[in-house]
Structure prediction request, 644 residues.
Amino acid sequence: MTAAYVLEQIANGIILGSMYALIAIGFSLIYGIVRLINFAHGDIVTIGAFAMLASITAFHAPFPVAVIVVLVVGAAVGMLIERIAFRPMRGAPQVTGFIASLAVAIVIENLGIMTVSAQPRNFIVPAYLGAFIRLGPLQIRAIDLAIVVLAIILMTALAVFVRFTKAGMAMRATAENYNVARLMGINIDRMIMLAFAIGSALAAAAGLMWGSKYSQISPLMGLIPGLKAFVAAVIGGVGSISGAMLGGYVLGLAEVLFVGLLPPEYSGYRNVFVFATLIVILLVMPNGLLGRSTEDRA
Amino acid sequence: MERRSNLVAVFGAALAGAVLVYGASSVLNPYLLSIIAFLGINVILAVSLNITNGFTGLFSLGHPAFMTIGGYVTAIMTILPARKAHLLPDLPAFLARMQWPFLPALIAGGLVATLAAIIVGFPVLRLRGHYLAVATLGLIFIIQGLATNLDGYTRGALGLNGLPELTNLWWVYGWVLLTLYVCWTLKHSSLGRTMMAIRENELAAACLGVKITRTRILSFALGAFFAGVAGGLWAHLVTLITPTSFTFLLAFQLVVIVVLGGSGSITGATLVAAALTIATEALHPVEEAVGLYGLSQTLLAIAVLLVLIYRPKGLFGMAEPDLLAWIRKLPGRQPTHSGSKRHREV
Prediction:
């Protein structure tokens, strides 16, 4: 096991972690405001990947334009889901929202199967993104670098938005205390919609990354990344945005190193490892790394 | 007197069911019989999930995990020792040599699932609400991963095929009756009321001396037992079990049945399980005709959303509508109002 190999594994962990982090942010944003674990979040990843494929193959959009299209489509779908499925049952017990989000997930997945079929398709990225780049001892593909850079840009933009803009402040206030925020004249419906829009746009971006990295997409591709990103959100502390980012990278690194550093016969246990981690984290530190303690978690 | 008349009605219904099963077994073709068997298995699953999710209010998605465990254990017990030797080389010698009849094999499957539920229950049941849901969902993937990777015991992703075709309508009917009986008795026993007390207000229940953890694990384990048995029945009906036989989609369908039927209503769970099985089978030809695979799933999920929005307590709430009332109203019998009220007050 050479140093270059370990370094390569760490790079892979960071790439995977970037995608987990982007998806996990959405879980935390939405949970922070409406106390809902949105199970359909993973399917936004799928929608992002398909939006990317459509804009590149059907409309021949250049890569940066396609990225913006994906963000817009993701945000639109997120807001639509919120408006149709979750708003009518606001105030219901938490579990109701969870079941509803499962139902939304099933609807999206099956609509996907009905329209584009369950067959995996090849995902094509421009040739210049497939080229190899040397970074010191490392040799990585340009797309991998693009994934990490894009993730960092998006997360920085989010951090700036949440910290320094008026809408961001209103969103933080809503997460802090729903009722008081409403008394202060904050339009709660708008804030919830905003949380869904931002979270879903980031998940869609993760979808285009997932497609470009693994070059195959299908209507069911979002399920496992979505669930694992939830694990990442729990590691970081559900409800905390910076926690979600941290949790994403921690989980990405842990998963890749688990597969890369242990003997190959253990690599089949990848998912077992991730979900066992979830259960352990929920037990040992239910508030995660950066989360605050809340009422009914454990 | 009233109790006896209820008892007579229940026995009458069970007997009528047996006559129906007998008639169906001799008249219907194997395809229809297998659908009826699936219907029965779904009833077992929904009613047993109702113990965990409906009575105690634990939101578990873990049923497919326990079905997988039960299915594999039952299958390992019933495969011919000669086949086991080359299919499953890692089995300990005492397991490799024996072959059990179906009933003990099913019970063994259920018991191993129960054991797994107890082991998993201690850490997982400390969680609440959707955290428990996600943890049990993780359990499905953990069991799936173990079943795929422990090739020496499970034959990996290939699964165990060519199992003896032991499940028939009589086995399913027997287990359906047992499940319904256990759940019904439980719901009207002090243990059942303890469970519902936990669901309604955990703090108050704890103050009244209810042992929260023990009761929760008990309800989780009891649900797991029937899930394990149902997994065994399923495996020997389709003569195959693989790590992906029971996925999270099944967990969703079962939760849907419990929610649609009304959490805690045995009648609701039974009727909805039956109706959904029939509806899904009826929609299959439609799906094939129009080439839209996934249509029935979509419609089902939309129906769930509508119920959650417009009728959040489910179709039956907690109630057990008195389906046997008509027997009591037969001419020449006194109507027994108080007898039927006993079931409604819960």
User: Anything to note?
Assistant: The two ends of chain B are 22 Å apart (CA to CA). Residues 212-238 of chain B form the longest helix (27 residues). Residues 334-346 of chain B have pLDDT under 50 and may be disordered.
